[in-house]
Amino acid sequence: xLDLLKPPILITQEFYxxxxxxxxxxxxxxxxxxxVALQMDxxxxxxxxxxxxxxxxxxxxxxxxxxxxxxxxxxxxxIGQIVAITLVRELGxxxxxxxxxxxxxxxxxxxxxxxxxxxxxxxxxxxGADPIRHLVxxxxxxxxxxxxxxxxxxxxxxxxxxxxxTWSYGVDTYEYWMHSADVIENFDLFTGVFKxxxxxxAIALIxxxxxxxxxxxAEGVGRAATESFVVSFMAILVLDFFIVMFLxxxxxxxxxRTSIFV
Length: 262
What we know:
The protein has helices spanning 2-26, 33-70, 79-117, 120-126, 131-168, 173-183, 186-212, 217-255. By secondary structure, the protein is an all-alpha fold.
């Protein structure tokens, strides 16, 4: 029994050590601003077209499905509310995180894995450089900071995609955007940004950890890249559940009422 428990406990310990050192090094000098800017360009700007495309068609498909159902009850004008609140609170942050994980987590893991198997990381340690500060912190900071902005873009474009669908059903433009704006509260925007920040931190840390733990050979690097995306995917869904529970409890305690969606 102890032999079965040792590997997961060791993995958990190593992961949290990596996360702690990464967060600690954010506030220590020197700060490698150029590396952070480079990772922002790779992770954020590179993921922007995919996030926009995903958000647009997600909103369009959602509006298309709901319009067929609501047309039966003569409530097509309410589509804007449904699309906006679903994207801002839940679908936008999760879809954006999954897109970023699919595009970048495997790349980060394979890049660091290649450096591991070619002993470049060991060479950095030999000359006194900290691989966590040089390699992990820029990726962590870039992912953590940029996913909220990508989420906002995804939300807006998704609502825009829903508008084009409802416009074809004869819904008034002012009515659609008025309903979309009225249903969104400041707490809803905070929820999406708050969740996306945690998703970004998880994606970067998991990818870097898998890259640092990569085994020798091309097969080991490929496996690290695959495991990075799979674990990131699962972590996003699990984190989403617990963050929603926390935010719902916070919402109830602040406003004294129960909200079905958070």
